[in-house]
Each structure stands twice: as C-alpha cells, then as structure tokens.
C-alpha cells in the first residue's frame, strides 16, 4: 500500500472504532506508521483524510449491500438475503454510526456520503419491493417506500441494541421480527422459511 | 438547582449533543458555570458524573416511553402511541446514541444503564404484544419478542436515517412502515387508521 492508502485505511478503521470526534490525527499517524509531514503532503488535514475514508467505506458498504440485494429469487428473498447477510454486528455499521458523531453531522462535506449511502440503500430496497408489488408478490396494500425505510432502520437500530447488550442476539431478533412482518405480506405459497 | 444538579444537567445535555468521548470535563464546567473544585467535591471525575447523568437520562426516557405505552386501547394502539409520540428526532435518542460511543461501551458501569433501558423497552413492548396475542388482537403467528425488537430497532435506526438526512422525514417514514406491517397483523376490524 502507498502512504496515502495506509493513511486512508487507518482512518477508516479508527472512524469505525472510535468515530471522527474520538480519533486524533496522532492516532491516525501512529496506526498508519507515517509521519505528520507525509499526512500533510497527501491531505489538507484530519477532515480531508476523513472525507476520503468515509467515501471509501461508503463505496464498500454499498457494494456489499448491493451484492446481497442482487441475488436470486423474488423481492422477499432478496430483502431476506440483505437482512441475514453475515455481519460483524458488535462493530456496528461503519456508515450509520457516523450519524451520532456531532462533528460529522455539523460538516456538510462529511455528512454527504453518509446521507447518500443510506438514501441509496432505502431507494434500492424500495425499488425491489415495488417490483415485487407489481408482480403481485405482496398484497396490494404494502407501501414499498415505508417498508424499505423500516427495513433499513431495523438494521441500523439492531446495531444499537446489540452494542448495548454486548451481544448480537438483539440484532438477530429484530431482523427476524421485521422479516416475519414482511413475509406475512407475501401472497401465494411464498418462500420456504 | 444545586451545584451537583447543575453539573448533572450540563453533562446530560453535552452527552446528548456530543457523546461521552466528545465531552471534556472543561466543557461540563463551563456549561454548568462551576469551578473544577466543585466538580471534584461532588464527583470522582468525568466517568462518575457521566454515570449519574446517564442514569438520570435513562429514568426520563423510561418514564416517557412508559407513559406512551400505558395509554388507552389495545396492544396495537399502545405501540402506535409509542411510535408516533412527539420526538425531537434530529437530536436522536439520548440513550441509544451512547452505544456508538466507544468509551461508554468499553466501561461496564456506563454501558449498564444503556443496556437496561433498551432491554426494559423491548420487554415492555413484547409484554404488550403478548397480551394482545392472548386476547386475539393479532393473528396467531405473531412473535411478540421479535416484533418488539423490530419496533425498538426501527425507532433507533430511524434516528440514524434522520440525522444522516438532516430531516425527520426518514424517521417518520420508517415508523409508519413498521406500524403498517404491525397493523396488517391485527385481526377483526382493527383500529381506525
């Protein structure tokens, strides 16, 4: 890895573990094993480096979610694949956790990739559910936008419950809960549980 | 207010706005308008003061949620009242947001009231849904524990989506989504929408 890549990867790790407010430039330099001069050669400062790190993390999250959502089967199967994909639950969401970071939310440039990623995810799931509705996979009353927001919020809030409990169990319970509620809206024989 | 109360209230505000990691003892003293000597007279340090603040915030959150959940009507009405209660959405949950604070999660004493509050909330909603199931308000397949976890997670994750968007709209959309999914599980004529 180049020095610039090492700085971005170290920042990504620290933002996930400690958030922006809890990460000092010194901690980034130590983890990356580079000197202060190198950092300022490549980046204007902590915010600039954090922006590169958040954009990269957002790309990775989007690609991972898209893979789960692009699988085989109907709309319910694809949302199930997203909900049940393997996760390091106790680490939380590397993008969503930044919303609780006051210095990220106060900075429009840093907030932008966080917003775009979560907004994209809601839109992607809503589109899948809408296609499912059009194919008659769900009863006619299902609202794709509202349901997609509930699905994404359950995952994000599931991390909150899991971290509070120091156990992935409440995340799994919440995800099964929203999945059961969604599955009950399918018409016909539906997928095998 | 006494000096001790002023310190606790200032810490509660700062924890909500900036989290534990982002709040310095100096910021607490400035907001409370008290000197360092006063703080150490009443509290062993920042963690001790934060513990008093988190416990107080947890009590308030529990009382507020309990009021919404103790209203008139059936199980679905009571969960609806909880989901739709007035909230300062963009501030986030003063308890849930602490789960993204690495120094809170790493300290068992600070994590304990966060866990207990969210665990109590899940249990309270699960008990209401279980009673509803026993009275035949929901179809027989509804799982009270899983559904309660999904309800609490939707609220917590709704804050994440709202803060990312700098708008309460995605919170409202997510909450309406989980409420529609729950309402669809009620039997009989059901509550008026």
Overview of the structural elements:
Two copies of one chain form a homodimer. Chain A has 193 residues and is mostly helical. Chain A is 69% helix and 0% strand. The first copy, chain A, contains nine helices and no strands. The first copy, chain A, has helices spanning 3-18, 25-32, 36-42, 46-69, 75-84, 102-105, 108-134, 144-165, 169-183. In chain A, helix 4 crosses helix 5 (75-84), helix 5 packs antiparallel against helix 9 (169-183) and helix 7 crosses helix 8. The radius of gyration of chain A is 19 Å and the shape is elongated. Chains A and B meet through helix 6, helix 7, helix 8 and helix 9 of A and helix 6, helix 7, helix 8 and helix 9 of B. Chains A, B: It comes from Streptomyces paromomycinus (Streptomyces rimosus subsp. paromomycinus). Chains A, B: Keywords: DNA-binding, Transcription, Transcription regulation. Chains A, B: Residues 1-61 form the HTH tetR-type domain.
């Amino acid at each position: 890895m180049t020095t610039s890549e090492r700085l971005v990867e170290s920042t990504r790790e620290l933002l996930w573990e400690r958030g922006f407010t809890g990460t000092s430039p010194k901690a980034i330099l130590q983890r990356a094993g580079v000197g202060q001069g190198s950092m300022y050669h490549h980046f204007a400062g902590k915010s600039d480096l954090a922006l590169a790190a958040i954009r990269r993390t957002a790309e990775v999250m989007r690609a991972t979610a898209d893979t789960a959502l692009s699988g085989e089967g109907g709309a319910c199967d694809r949302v199930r694949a997203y909900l049940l994909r393997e996760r390091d639950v106790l680490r939380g969401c590397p993008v969503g956790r930044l919303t609780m970071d006051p210095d990220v939310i106060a900075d429009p440039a840093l907030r932008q990739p966080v917003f775009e990623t979560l907004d994209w995810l809601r839109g992607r799931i809503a589109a899948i559910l809408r296609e499912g509705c059009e194919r008659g996979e769900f009863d006619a009353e299902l609202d794709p936008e509202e349901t997609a927001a509930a699905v994404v919020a359950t995952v994000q809030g599931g991390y909150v419950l899991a971290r509070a409990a120091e156990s992935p169990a409440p995340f799994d319970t919440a995800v099964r809960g929203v999945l059961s509620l969604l599955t009950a809206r399918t018409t016909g024989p539906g997928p095998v549980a």
